[in-house]
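Let's practice the habit of predicting before peeking. Look at the sequence and jot down your guess about where helices and strands might fall. Then scroll down.
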Amino acid sequence: MSKKVLSIVETAYRATLEEQDDTIIWLTHAMKGAGADIDILLRGNAVNYAVKGQDASGLAFGEKRQTQPPRLDEDVAKLVGKGTRVYLVREDLAERGISAEELIGGVEMVSRKELPKLFAGYDQVWHW
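Done guessing? Here is the structure:
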């Protein structure tokens, strides 16, 4: 019997200089594709991942230009499309001045005080 996993992503934009997305978002895609029962909670700066229309193009190191930037909002939207529940911490959005209208569709907001109840619904909670 598979375990139900909630993967918390809090450290944002780690290893996102290449076209590959956030390593944990990528891992979640792979695990979901392999049949894992896994959902995501974005908190802290990682709530930015759900802001639609992000554009990381324009990054350059001297003459070397990044031509395949990450598209984290699209990666998160694809997870929603795969049936992964994606939660956001409402207070973390507000602290960053992000409104609900700026978010991709399908994400669910939870308050900090609702987190223990959310965690209780999973067999394992991973924190990145």
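How did you do? The chain is about 25% helix and 20% strand.
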